[in-house]
Each structure stands twice: as C-alpha cells, then as structure tokens.
C-alpha cells in the first residue's frame, strides 16, 4: 500500500463525523503542519473556534514515523481527544493507513494509585488528620477519610488503570494523596517492591507503544525542566491551547514554603533523624509562620532580616537531616520511607536556597491568610527556558484560537522564546541572522460569520471603573441588557465582589434565575444554565475561559471591566518593572497583552457554533476611549459588528428574545 497523503487522512477523518465536511481553514492547517514536519520548521497556527483544529493536526500527525506527543492545557480538551476524536479517527483511517493507530494518555504519577501504598496500607494518620484540618472537625474528617481510603483499597483490586479519572464516584483530595505519590517522592519501579504492579508504570508502558500520546502542559513543562527525560521520545510535538503554555511552565517552576510544610517535615524526621533535628525543624516552622505572617502580599525585592535568618536555619537543618539519612540500600525495609523523606528535605532545602539567592531571574512573595500563608518563589520569565528546550531536536506545532494579539503573533511568539528575526518570511527565508529556532506563522481564520452573528457593544457612556466592585451606573446598564433579552446571559466579572453585587442587583430587580459561581459546583451551575432558558450565570476568571455553552442558552456575554492584572500582583508587577528598566513600557508589554488574551477568551464565549447569535457587552468605556490600547484590544477580539449605541443593542436583544426558538 502506497503512503497516504494528509488530504486522504483528513478526508477519511472528516467523513467519519455525522454530516461532516472539511471546514474552511482545516485543509490549509493540515497541509501546513505536514510541510513543517517535512522541513523541520516550527509552526504557530491560529485556528478560530469552529475550525476543527483537532482533526486538522491529528491527520498529519499520523504520517509521522515516530510517536507524536499532543499537549493540552485543559482536561476538557484532553477528554475530547481521548473520548471522541481519537477513537473516531482511529477507526476512520484504518482502511487508508493500513493499520489502526494506537493512542494513550500520559499523566503525572499523582493521577494513579500507588501500588506500594496500597500494598503496605500506608497511611500517616498524624499528617492526614491534623496537617490540613481544623482541630475541632478532625473526628468527622477521620471518619470520611477512612471510608475513602477503604474504597480506594478495594478499588485497587478491580481497576485495570488505577487512574483517578476512572473512579466514580470520586474521593476527597486528602484520601487520594494518601494512596498516590508524586514523581519526586517515587523511588522508581526498579527499586520498589511493588514495581511490577505499578499503575503509573503500566500507563507509561502503554504510552511508549502508542502512535499518539496525549499529555498536559504541566507534565510537558516538567519534561522541559528535566532535560526531556519524562515524556517518551518523539520527533513531533503539538501544543494545543499554546497561549497557556508559558503560564503553566511558570507554575511548574514555582516553589513554596509554609509553616505547615516545614512542621510536617519535623514530624516525619522524628523517627528517622532523631528528636533533636525534629525539634529544630518544628521550631523553624513556628518562626517561619510568624515571619511570613508579617510579610505583605507583594513582591519581596529584599528579604526581611528575620526571614533571611529563618531560611538560613532551614537550609542548615535540612542539610543535617539529609546527612543523617545517608545512603539507603534498595533492599532495606526502610528504603522507601527514608528515600521519600530525603526527597522532601532536599526540596525544602533547595527552595530555601533559591529564596535566599534571589537574583533578577526569580520573584519572591508571600500569599495566603493566617497559618495558611506561604512564601513563594517563581521565575520572572520562562521564555529563555522554552526557547532553548521546547524546540530542541523536534518539530513543534503551537496552535490556539487566541495566538494573535493586536493582529500579530509577536507577543505569543516571544512568550514561547521565539525570536522575530528567525521567523520565515513569504520568500521562505529568515528575515535576519539565525540565532535560534526557525519558525513561521499562519492564521487560518474561522468558519463563523462574526459580523452577521454577533455584536460587540462597548458602553462608552459609563464612567471609568474605579474600584473592584460594580458601580451603580454599570449595574443599571446590566439590568437593561439582561431584561431586554429576558435572561440567557453569562456575566464575566473581574472580582468576586463585583459578581456578588451583580447577582444581588439582578435578584432584586428581576425575576430571572440567577446562578452565582461559588453557590454550587461549577459543573452543576453550567448544567443548570444550559437547561433553563431564562437563567443568568455570573462568575469570575474560570468562567472566562472554561465554559462552552453553544446555542440559545448563552446569547449575551457581559464583561464588567477590562481584565488588567492587579497592580500588586507580584509576578506581573515584577515583569512590568523589568520592562520599564529595559527602556520599554511595562504596561504596554505586560498588562495590555494580559488583558487582550483574557478579554478575547471572555468574548469568545458568545459564538461557539455557526448558528449562534448574540451580543458581547463590555461595561468598561476604556475599550472605546483609550487611544493607546483600545484599538489593540479590539483587534484582538473576534470581528463582531461594533457599536457604542445602547438603544440599538437593547433593540437587537429584544428582537432576539422575540424570535421563536427554532428560528434563532
């Protein structure tokens, strides 16, 4: 059988979808990916909602002679690929490809039951019952925890995967932590008595045999930080939802210390390193709790003297404890417990040293409340790391519906460590000297007719927002818009306070069902929102990017204010300061792009299918009036029909409300 073409594979994949046909941009995207695979040139491709980008990259991926890794930012997309797209694709292309492609999910070890803990029935009751539980409620916590652990122990005998996602109903996070392990704590299958029964190793073995491996940005980031030793070997990496990768890598590279975590180290060290070291760690934990309670929730450019002293003590105590543990032989009955304790001590010591070192590449701050406060350290930028490691010795396809900001790929490319001078031009030549990965970009557009399907309305007559709440004028505008449509509104707010105020106002002034994030679990709220034709769903950031409600249930998306980062948010503030020091503008290079991508995600909740209709309303006049950044933000949004006329918009909403459901 001759080698199939990408067009043949895409045709077969699309034909397997009921009523399926190749969508605008889908063929162009698939062809461009195949060309990048052939040339080794990295590709950034923006594919708007409705393009069908998953099939557009899965089809050419099947032409790779070696395994392909696909990384996603959200569980929703990962589930879609595994539960829907790949099973359908695998069946459809078998006649064309001459074989049935194999696929597997590659998750972190903490997603799986730990056979060693199941086999040893290992539960540290002291840590479990008291480390994260209020003293007054520990009896009830213990009872629930015991039942959950019993369920997990029984389930271990029935499950083939040990994957938490396969457990229904689920168990508490506390119970799962007791019966799973992290990559850092794992001693390795070769050194573990239960290595032959390890669920995580079995999953990894399945992934190594697969043609397509689905993972997530968190695990991809860990692989990047550990010299590409985590994921199976591959020549092609497809990063979906690529606009999230830099933030996920930053999260993976951050570390933290708290009084609770150091106190747990002391308790765990007691039986291994002796009571003197344990008491020292416990005392350090108390001192750390006092010191970080007094620190503000802002960037610590210089560490307070007291914090420097306690971190120095922690560094020394951990070093002493590590020395006491020494080298443990794999055949020792204490090998697992001592190796894990050594790992925990090493992590705490490295974090203390990193905080003490400071430097221009890391940002330090404290966050949390009361005894739950933590000292955090995170990289100022991961662009250098990504530029060196992400693109090395493989071809990378980075795709998303929101890769262009202000009409350009520059911001997204820079965040991933790609340099403008290495972009391949129309003439297929780099525009400058090759000093890094060669890449090109393309925007395949969207199949939606945005100007006919929706309106972007900016309430330019409202006063500029001055506080985190909702102004009276904005609340009045909110009521007018929602009542004109008689519900069916998704409210995206910049703060919990503003969302709560909006819910109170709408409940007082209308008879509409108002669903507020936090009142119930988010999946249940979304389910109710979809089911009730007059419901309004109000919430904060997780609704801006994680809710997909096509059809009549969501025909009005309301954004209360432009989502600039808080001025006191440590990472954003540090990045802005660095840009200012370099002679640029921190506001223009950090705050505006941040707002652009979040606003695009929020407004993007409106049009999800070719039949959707509605209005995206922004109650912040700066989107219209700010000459320096308003046009940039508007150009980053889907090209809806634009107006600032409130009367026209209310009229359009009333007409939409009066349209019979089957004609909307």
TrEMBL record:
Q: What is this protein called?
A: Helicase c2
Sample GO molecular function, one term: nucleic acid binding
What SMART domains does its record include?
Answer: DEXDc (SM00487), HELICc2 (SM00491)
Q: Which domain of life is it from?
A: Bacteria
Q: Which family does the similarity line name? A: Belongs to the helicase family. DinG subfamily.
Q: Which UniProt keywords apply?
A: ATP-binding, Helicase, Hydrolase, Nucleotide-binding
Organism lineage string? Bacteria, Bacillati, Actinomycetota, Actinomycetes, Glycomycetales
Does Transport appear among the keywords? Answer: no
Q: Gene3D superfamilies from the entry?
A: P-loop containing nucleotide triphosphate hydrolases
Give the source species.
Stackebrandtia nassauensis (strain DSM 44728 / CIP 108903 / NRRL B-16338 / NBRC 102104 / LLR-40K-21)
Q: Which residues form the Helicase ATP-binding domain?
A: 12-285, 34-259
Coiled-coil positions are: none
Q: Example GO biological process term?
A: nucleobase-containing compound metabolic process
């Amino acid at each position: 059988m001759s080698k199939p073409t990408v067009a043949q594979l895409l045709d077969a994949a699309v034909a397997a979808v009921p009523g399926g046909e190749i969508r605008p941009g889908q063929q162009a995207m698939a062809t461009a990916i195949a060309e990048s695979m052939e040339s080794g040139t990295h590709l950034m491709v923006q594919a708007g909602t409705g393009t069908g980008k998953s099939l557009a990259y899965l089809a050419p991926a099947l032409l790779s002679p070696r395994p392909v890794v696909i990384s996603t930012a959200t569980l929703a997309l990962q589930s879609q690929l595994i539960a829907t797209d790949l099973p359908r694709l695998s069946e459809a292309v078998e006649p064309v490809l001459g074989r049935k492609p194999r696929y597997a999910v590659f998750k972190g070890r903490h997603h799986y039951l730990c056979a060693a803990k199941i086999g040893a029935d290992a539960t540290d009751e002291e840590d479990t019952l008291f480390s994260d539980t209020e003293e007054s409620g520990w009896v009830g916590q213990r009872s629930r925890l015991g039942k959950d652990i019993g369920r997990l122990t029984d389930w271990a005998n029935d499950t083939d995967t040990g994957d938490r996602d396969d457990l229904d109903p689920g168990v508490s996070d506390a119970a799962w932590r007791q019966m799973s392990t992290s990559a850092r704590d794992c001693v390795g299958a070769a050194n573990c008595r239960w290595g032959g029964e390890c669920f995580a190793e079995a999953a990894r073995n399945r992934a190594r045999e697969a043609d397509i491996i689905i993972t997530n940005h968190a695990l991809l980031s860990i692989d990047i930080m550990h010299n590409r030793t985590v994921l199976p070997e591959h020549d092609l990496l497809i990063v979906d939802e690529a606009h999230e990768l830099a933030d996920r890598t930053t999260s993976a590279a951050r570390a933290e210390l708290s009084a609770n975590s150091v106190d747990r180290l002391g308790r765990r060290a007691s039986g291994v390193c002796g009571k003197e070291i344990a008491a020292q760690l416990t005392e350090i934990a108390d001192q750390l709790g006092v010191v970080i309670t007094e620190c503000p929730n802002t960037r610590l450019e210089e560490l307070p003297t007291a914090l420097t002293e306690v971190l120095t003590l922690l560094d020394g105590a951990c070093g002493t404890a590590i020395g006491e543990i020494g080298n443990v032989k794999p055949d020792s009955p204490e090998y697992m417990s001592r190796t894990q304790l050594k790992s925990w001590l090493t992590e705490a010591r490295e974090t203390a040293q990193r905080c003490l070192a400071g430097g221009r590449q890391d940002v330090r701050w404290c966050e949390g409340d009361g005894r739950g406060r933590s000292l955090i350290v995170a990289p100022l930028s991961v662009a250098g790391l990504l530029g060196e490691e992400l693109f090395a010795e493989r071809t990378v396809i980075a795709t998303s519906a929101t890769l262009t900001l202000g009409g350009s790929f520059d911001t997204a490319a820079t965040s991933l460590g790609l340099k403008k001078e290495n972009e391949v031009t129309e003439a297929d030549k780099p525009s400058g000297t090759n000093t890094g990965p060669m890449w090109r970009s393309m925007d395949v557009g969207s199949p939606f007719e945005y100007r006919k399907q929706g309106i972007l309305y900016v309430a330019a007559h409202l006063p500029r927002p001055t506080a985190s709440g909702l102004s009276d004028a904005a609340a009045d505008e909110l009521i007018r818009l929602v009542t004109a449509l008689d519900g069916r509104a998704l409210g995206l707010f910049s703060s919990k306070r503003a969302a709560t105020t909006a819910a109170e106002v709408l409940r007082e002034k209308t008879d509409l069902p108002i669903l507020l994030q936090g009142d119930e679990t988010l999946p249940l709220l979304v389910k109710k929102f979809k089911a009730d034709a007059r419901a309004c769903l109000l919430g904060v950031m997780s609704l801006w990017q994680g809710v997909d409600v096509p059809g009549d249930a969501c025909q009005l998306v309301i954004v209360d204010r432009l989502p600039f980062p808080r001025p006191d948010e440590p990472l954003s503030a540090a990045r802005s300061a660095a840009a200012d020091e370099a002679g640029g503008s921190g506001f223009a290079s950090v705050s505006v792009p941040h707002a652009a991508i979040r606003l695009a995600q929020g407004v993007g909740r409106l049009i999800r299918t070719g039949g959707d209709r509605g209005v995206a309303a922004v109650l912040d006049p700066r989107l219209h009036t700010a000459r320096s950044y308003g046009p940039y933000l508007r150009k980053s949004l889907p090209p809806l029909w634009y107006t600032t006329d409130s009367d026209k918009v209310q009229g359009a909403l009333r007409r939409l409300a009066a349209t019979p459901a089957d004609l909307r």
